[in-house]
């Protein structure tokens, strides 16, 4: 006869093993988060009610409160995951000593494009819901976006100063590249035509090509005369192509 003690049961007769209970809770919370993200993306934050989320998951409203306190809690998690994680990832690349400015821009674009493609619904909902974000969450979102822009502009500014990049306004150039990356969330769909690795590499190469300075002459800032010289050279190149 076995001396093993029977596993304790809950009132409902279910296994009360804390480990299994914790795993189940984690799965349910992830399901709630995924459904909330989809609904926020489709309807906007303001247009999604707590009851909508409960219905999508298949829970009653009281049961949903057992896992999350409000839809603000779900949105706060999303904003932190998207904006703060993005900022941290870009900052980590920007601070690497083993990469020059060219390689840093390449790596940042690859990382950003991949995140946009793999989490498209989450990025879409943030864009659609920016005007409706609660004050505290909006501040977190804004701080994350500013950190991303600052890190990207810093890399470009360093490249300009060292003559690796043409004399551009680092902030404007950073906004342009980040805008290109952000648009991926709207047009990318995983299929045979859209190989994500190839897309990441192509957009990263395009980003670097838009900044690279073929002259290799260092400048501390974007002087108007230098900008005009680059514009004339590009126009000459375009005329040659037309001829």
TrEMBL record:
DNA-binding interval(s): 49-68
Glycoprotein recorded as keyword: no
Protein name, entry field: TetR family transcriptional regulator
Domain HTH tetR-type: start-end pairs: 26-86
Region (Disordered): 1-23
UniProt KW keywords: DNA-binding, Repressor, Transcription, Transcription regulation
Biased composition (Basic residues): 1-11
UniProt-listed PANTHER family: HTH-TYPE TRANSCRIPTIONAL REGULATOR RUTR, HTH-TYPE TRANSCRIPTIONAL REPRESSOR KSTR2
